[in-house]
Amino acid sequence: MPDRATTGRPTAVVIGASAAGLFAAAALTEFADVTVVERDVLPDRVESRRGVPQARHAHLVWSGGVRAFDELLPGVVGDVVANGGRLVHIMGDMVSRAPNEVWFRRFLSTRHRNLVSSRDLLDFVLRDRVLAHERVTLRQGTTALGPTGDAGRVTGLRVRAGGDELTLAADLVVDASGRGSRSPQWLQALGLPRVPERKVDAGVTYATRLHRAPGSTAGIDFPLVNVQANPAKAPGRGGIILPIEGDRWIVTLAGTRGAEPTGDPDAFVDFALGLDDPVIGTLLKDAEPLEDVAISRSTANHRRYYEKMKHWPEGFVVVGDAVAAYNPVYGHGLTVAAQCALALRDVLRTTAVTAPGTARRLQRAASRPVAGAWDLAVGQDAFYPGATDTPPTAVERLLARFVDRAVATGARNPRALGALLDVMSLEKPATRLFSADMLLPMLLGPKRHHLQQPPLTAAERGAAGAVRRDVRA
Predict the structure, then answer these.
(1) 258: number of CA atoms within 13 Å, CB side?
(2) What pLDDT digit, counting tens, does each position of 320-352 carry?
(3) How many CB atoms lie under 10 A from the CB of residue 301?
(4) CA distance 136 to 122
(5) Which of 328, 353, 378 is the last residue of a domain?
(6) What is the pLDDT of residues 221-272, one digit of tens each?
(7) Within 313-389, where are the H helices?
(8) Could you tell me if residue 402 is inside a domain?
(9) For residue 234, what are the domain limits?
(10) Threshold 0.85, pTM exceeds
C-alpha cells in the first residue's frame, strides 16, 4: 500500500463497511486514498455479523442494481453467481402476486434480472473485492464518534478504537452507516439547522426462517415465490420464498399493525397458510427448518432531505440508507446504495474532491437515486392506517390508481411488463409508465384474462410436494 504522506492524493474516510460503505469506497478509490471505519470485526468467511442485523431476511438486487454493481466493480456479479448466487429472470423465474392481488404471468421476453443470494454471501464477495484494493485501508473494531470541523467544513472524523480516541484527518468524510445514522445530530452539533425528515411507517413486522429446500427442489432452479400485501385490505400480510445458495430457502413473512407474525416457530407455517393465497405455506409443509425465527420491526420508510439544506459543509456527504431507508419488502436498498456510489463517482470525474462546492454537489447527486425508490415505497405504504401524519393527497391517490392499472396491464402483457420493470428495477424514472409501451396495451389490449392462482408448473409443485394443476401459461 502506498505511503499516503507522499502520494499527494486526497484522503477520504467512509463510515461503515456494509454494502453502501463498500460501494462508496470502491467509487472513491479513483480519486482518493480511502479509510473504511467499521465498528465490528469483520468475518473472513461467509457468515453474519452484528452490524447487519437485517442480513437474515430475504434480499435481492433489482436489475438497476445489477448494472450498477458491475459498473462499480466489474465482474462482481459473476463472483456472486460463481459462489452460488443466481441471476433470476423477472418474471420468468418468479411467481409473484402484486399488492393489488394480480398474479404476474411468467413472461420470458423481458431482459430484466434480479441477483439473488444470501446477504452474507453478497457482503463477503463485496468485502473481498473492495478491501483488497491498494487504495483502501480498513480500521475495524473502530467506532465513529462524529466529524471534526465546523458548519463550513468537515476536516476529519473522531473515532474510538479500543480505549483510545483519535482523529482521522480527511478531505472527505462519507457517512454510510445506514438506518441508524447520527448525521442529523452531528450536523446540528457543528452549528447547522435540523435536517428536514419524513417517516412513513406501515408498522410492518418481519419474521424470517431458513429452511432446507424441500423434496427435489434442490436439483432445479426453483422460482422465487412472492405474495405481496394489499394496502387496500389492512392489515396487510405477505411473504416471500427466496431460494439461495446451499440448497436453502430464506422464507420471510410480513404483517402490518394487527397482523404481525411472531417468533413462535410453531406458528410460522400457519401464518403463511393464512395469507390471502396459501401458496407459501403449502410449499413449506415439507421444508425442514434450519434455525429459529428471526424478527425485525425496523421497517419504516425514513428519508432525510439533506439536499434541501440551505447550507452544507465542505468535506461531508451522506449516502445509502443513511439518506433514505425503505420498507425492505420492496428490495431497493442495495440497488440505491450502488447507484448512490455511481453518482459520487460521476461528480468526481468532473470536479476535484477538494474543490469548493464539491460536497454539496455530491450530496445532491447522492440524493437523486433515492427519489425513485422512495416514491415506489411510500406510494404503497402511505395507504396503511397510521403510517403517516399526512394522509395521501388526491394526486397521490390518483397516481396510486394509475400504478394499479399499470401493474394489472403488465401482469398480462409482456410489452407493458417491460415498461413496468424498467421503473420497478430503478433503471428508468416513473415517467416510463406513461410511454406507449404501457399506455397502448392499457387502453387497447388485447387483454388476456388474469390468472386466478399462482403460476407454478406441475413439475415445480411436485418437486416441493405440493401438486396442483399447471397455470404457467
Answers:
(1) 8
(2) 999 999 998 889 999 999 999 999 999 999 999
(3) 24
(4) 19
(5) 378
(6) 999 999 999 888 889 999 999 999 999 999 999 999 999 999 999 999 999 9
(7) 333-348, 358-381
(8) no
(9) 203-298
(10) yes
